[in-house]
Every structure is written in structure tokens, then in C-alpha cells.
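Subgroup meeting minutes
Present: P.N., E.W., G.H.
Scribe: E.W.

1. P.N. recapped why we're keeping a running log of single-chain structure predictions: easier to compare across weeks, and new members can see raw inputs and outputs side by side.
2. G.H. added today's entry (174 aa).
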Amino acid sequence: MPVPSPAFVPRPLRTGRLDLLPLLPDHAEELAAALDDPALHAFTGGEPLRAPALRERYARWAAGSPDPRVVWANWAVRLRETGALVGTVQATVGPTPVAEVAWVTGTPWQGRGIATEAAKALVAEVLRQGVPTVVAHVHPEHGASVAAAAGLRPAPHWQDGERRWERAGEAGKA
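Output recorded in log:
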């Protein structure tokens, strides 16, 4: 099976309520405020980053992976109704034909289906760009409804205490 092309790039995506925008360092200020809740790190560790640290992180991500066989694709999630940035989604693609995906939505916007809508768009984009397998890792104490709604199913594999969820063999079927 071919390795995903480094041509995989985050293009703007649009859903019913959301705009997924390629993540830029300029998004750091607004996202630092939107993601400024320690509860968002309950399962992943760490703490909320302030705008300067997020700006540095987003600049590294925008510059791309140091491994030319790996693509970092990141989007800021904008709720079109208010214009607010409310979270992020990301896909790490390669060096095998697998995309590892993740999402985060700020606490004030949770429970509205925003993470689900963004994750569905992310998975569809990964499949559309020809990556046949999509995986996410979900902590067992964290609800997996977003992963399930995005079409991923629990796998028997665990990594760092998190269950692997996957959707395999469907490239081009988005």
C-alpha cells in the first residue's frame, strides 16, 4: 500500500455550522482564551497554554513535521454563527497509510455537537485525500461518542492507557 503523500494539506472545510480553517499562529490569541480550562487536560495531562506558547506551537505545526514522510494537518474550528474559534482538530498522517486524529472543543461550547461535526468533517477529509485508515485514542473514562459518531469503532488495541478507535479500508469513500 502506498505511503500518504506529503501533498496532504489542510484545506479550508465547511460543515453545516462550522468553518475548519488551516491552523495558523495568528489563531493563538483567540484559541488560548477558548481552550483556557484545566478540565480539558484531565485525561491528557498538562495545562492550558497562554497565547505566546500556543503561537510557538502553532508555528511549529504550520512549519510541518521534521520527518518528510509525516504530515501534520491542523485546523482551527470556527462556529460560523458567532464567528468565534471554539476548538481544533488535527490529523497526523504517515509514515504508514494511517491518519491519527484528535479534536478539542472549548468547555463553553461542549454538549452542542460541535466536536462531533468537526470530527466527522476531519475523518471525511482524511478519507477523501486517500488515507485508508483513521485512528483516534480515547481515554476509557472519557466519553467516546465523538469517535463513534465520526464512524470510528473500538479496536482491541490500547496505547498509553487509551483505547484505539479506528475506521479502516475506506479511502476515497468520504
